[in-house]
Amino acid sequence: MRYDCLSILGHPVVETPNLDELARTGVRFDHAYSATPTCVPARAAIFTGQKQTSHGRVGYQERVPWNYPTTLPGELAKSGYHTQCVGKMHVYPARSLMGFHNVILHDGYLHYNRYKHSNTVQEHYDEVDDYLTWLRGQVPGADLLDLGLDCNASTVARPWALSEHLHPTNWTVSQSIDFLRRRDPSKPFFLWMSFVRPHSPLDPPQAYLDLYKDTDIPDPVIGEWAMKEDPEGHGFNPVTSKGIVPKRRLKLAKAAYYALITHIDHQIGRFLQALDEYGERNNTIIMFTSDHGELLGDHHLFRKSLPYEGSAHIPFIVNDPGGYLNLAQGSAVSEVVELRDIMPSLLTAASIDIPASVEGESVWELARAEEEASRNKPWREYLHGEHAQGIASTQWITNGAEKYIWYSQTGEEQFFNLVQDPGEIHNLIHHPQKQDRIRYWRSVLVQELKDREEGYVQDGRLVIGREPVAVLSHLR
Hints:
The chain is of the alpha+beta class.
């Protein structure tokens, strides 16, 4: 989910009433990022509380075993919490518990589990996925491919064809509510309610698509630096990551994306009502975030992995109705936070010691009422992000106000003033008055990369064309 798809932020189209209320009565972190903005490495940051150079996943690569000895659910379980995940994990093996007592799994479509032609595949999707097994019990012969949509089809959309209660979003909440019934009432609980949507396929129930399909949806932002023509017709590819997409197709895709978010929002409202029914609403700290965004046509780009705001900037909301953390309700935090900060934040909230391996920081001191806040040390000055992806591999630095990007295979550089230009329309890399800032951020990136195994830095300078890897050697 993109960071800006909240009506409380003034989005001109999308409606998110329940998330708006969580933000209005909680704390909104306006500069939250995913340092490695695709599913696998982002989730490694959540599970371990580590930056990408430590957890080892600096790009997207499946089927690399998850053998981390210390994880967020594992630490909570050891401290007496009843831990449960419902929905997406995206780990390997797919049924790895990662410290949870139990996982009710729906990862969406994972190619390595579905491909029947590979002799090395040890587990097939219909053997590991709980949602598909359940769905086939409701609709014999049903499959995830029935709508004809690819799991990464960013530009093709159509309505969900079955009853709404059979949609994966509803199923995730139904199973989560059932956990409230089945949990050990003598223990506190940790529930990770993990939605696949609004990730593709873009398949909202018809009622939600109807909310948006005839709405005047704004065009994507297009940078001055973005592609002007698409002579090879990449935009006609239904699973494109770039290109000029036919206007009607793109409008429907955006409408479906917004519809999926409102669908999730309403189902979150359903879960919050269930928390009330079980008497746990005021005894529960709620955190809402995403593993990455979706470019959705910005700069004629789609999907994620790139460092632009639509891809790397994510929503991050905390709500504490019981007042346990003394947060400044209705406030917005401007400091840069990252997914690795989730683990130390939740462990601190549960009064559990933070393991030495954790590199994130608890966000609570940023979010407390001003008169109560007493920070032990300054907050991070910047975030280093990256993603290995062939010719499109990037390294980037941001402090929430400025962003420096280096394409490691081509040497292309970009510099954006996010305060004056939040859409990243104007690349200021050659602006004469910005050269001091650019040199500074370039030097920061050099320091971050100077000891990297890829050899990105030599003699204190960035080196173009060094081969990127998705997984660092200590994890391989």
